[in-house]
Write a structure and sequence with these properties.
Structural class: alpha/beta
CATH superfamily of the largest domain: Aldolase class I
Largest sheet: 8 strands, parallel, barrel
Distance between the termini: 46 Å
Strand order of the largest sheet: 7-8-9-10-11-12-13-14
CATH topology of the largest domain: TIM Barrel
Bound molecules: phosphoenolpyruvate, manganese (II) ion
Shape: elongated
CATH architecture of the largest domain: Alpha-Beta Barrel
CATH class of the largest domain: Alpha Beta
Length: about 350
């Protein structure tokens, strides 16, 4: 960090800042300019509280230089991280996989019909929540382990990689024993104990951006998973909460190139939660691929009118199949592949 002193700061005040920096176990380099003096702090200062220095007499402001996240930062690793869910479902390469499926696993017939539709459309992953984070406690909460068993059966028939959400640290081992990838939902983006728990298990993690987390906060949260030793983190832009109410959330597609600049982790876009309306999903899927997304996660239900959750934003198997060829063409235009 750089400590910028006020123009009227005294020599004693500058010396005091230097002493505090040394007390922190860091080195200093004092640059005396014509108008003001700055103290460049040398060394990894990320564990130090910049706020403490900010209130020291004579200090104008403290400017951080290092990203607050280390393992996630692009500057630490130039090559992109590849996250493999199965042989055909790898995120972060030229190929752009699609995970599709219902919001929730409802019953055997529904999840098998979904899996067949996802496979027929040429997608690589099947999503479906067995544990659901519902805004209302009286809403359908998911089938629990029974839902995980149905997902495993769908994988056995289709070969699709299974992505499903985990809500609590105590259920991580159970979900991990069935899934190919654990989803952390938007509401748990800053549930740090849960992030640590999925960081300790071996399966990849699809980590959704919180409803109101900034990019900076999001990457610091991802760091919790990485710091526990799990390098296989897929970020997911799923829309954020803004004043705009014509959609359920505002899908922040500029987050995709921004995240690519800041991190080596792959980034998937979820146009379903990102818009909340099935009629907007195809266009935003194409836009997501054009923005450089490393994958898509789309809600698809064999019978959206009767879906138990998120029917309004779920497209049909036929609509998914119809969407895929145009995604292939968009991908080609930016030198990527979709099937
Ligand atoms: C979901 O994927 O069904 C879900 C609950 O998503 P989010 O956490 O993004 O709201
Ligand atoms: Mn959903």
């Amino acid at each position: 960090m750089i400590v910028v002193m006020k123009s009227e700061a005294t020599k004693e005040q500058i010396d005091h800042v230097v002493a505090l920096v040394r007390e922190m176990g860091l080195n200093d380099h004092v640059i005396v300019g014509t108008d003001l003096t700055v103290v460049a702090v040398i060394g990894d200062d990320r564990k130090k509280d910049k706020g403490a220095l900010e209130q020291v007499p004579g200090v104008d402001r403290v400017v951080p230089i290092l990203h607050p996240y280390k393992i996630a930062a692009r500057e630490m690793k130039k090559e992109r991280t590849l996250v493999k869910l199965s042989d055909s479902c790898v995120f972060g390469s030229k190929h752009v996989p699609v995970i599709a499926g219902p919001c929730s696993v409802e019953n055997e017939e529904q999840i098998m019909a979904s899996a067949r539709g996802v496979k027929a459309a040429g997608c690589q992953g099947l999503r479906g929540g067995a544990f659901k984070p519902r805004t209302n406690p009286y809403s359908f909460q998911g089938l629990g382990e029974e839902g995980l068993k149905l997902l495993a059966a769908a994988r056995a028939e289709t070969g699709l990689a299974i992505v499903t959400e985990v809500l609590t640290p105590t259920e991580v081992d159970l979900v991990s024993s069935y899934a190919d990838c654990l989803q952390i939902g938007a509401r748990n983006c800053q549930n740090f104990k849960l992030l640590e728990a999925v960081g300790k298990q071996p399966k990849p993690v699809l980590f959704k951006r919180g409803l109101s987390t900034t990019i900076d906060e999001y990457l610091q949260a991802a760091e919790y998973i990485l710091a526990e030793g799990n390098p296989n983190v897929i970020l997911c832009e799923r829309g954020i909460r803004t004043f705009e109410d014509h959609t359920r959330n505002t899908l922040s597609l500029s987050a995709v190139p921004e995240l690519h600049e800041r991190t080596h982790l792959p980034i998937v876009v979820d146009p379903s939660h990102g818009t909340g309306y099935a009629r907007l999903v195809a266009d935003m899927s194409r836009a997501a691929v054009a923005s450089g997304a490393d994958g898509l996660m789309i809600e698809m239900h064999p019978d959206p009118e009767h879906a138990m959750t998120d029917g309004g934003q779920s497209i049909t198997p036929a609509a998914l199949k119809e969407l895929m060829p145009s995604l292939v063409r968009v991908a080609q235009a930016i030198d990527r592949t979709m099937n």
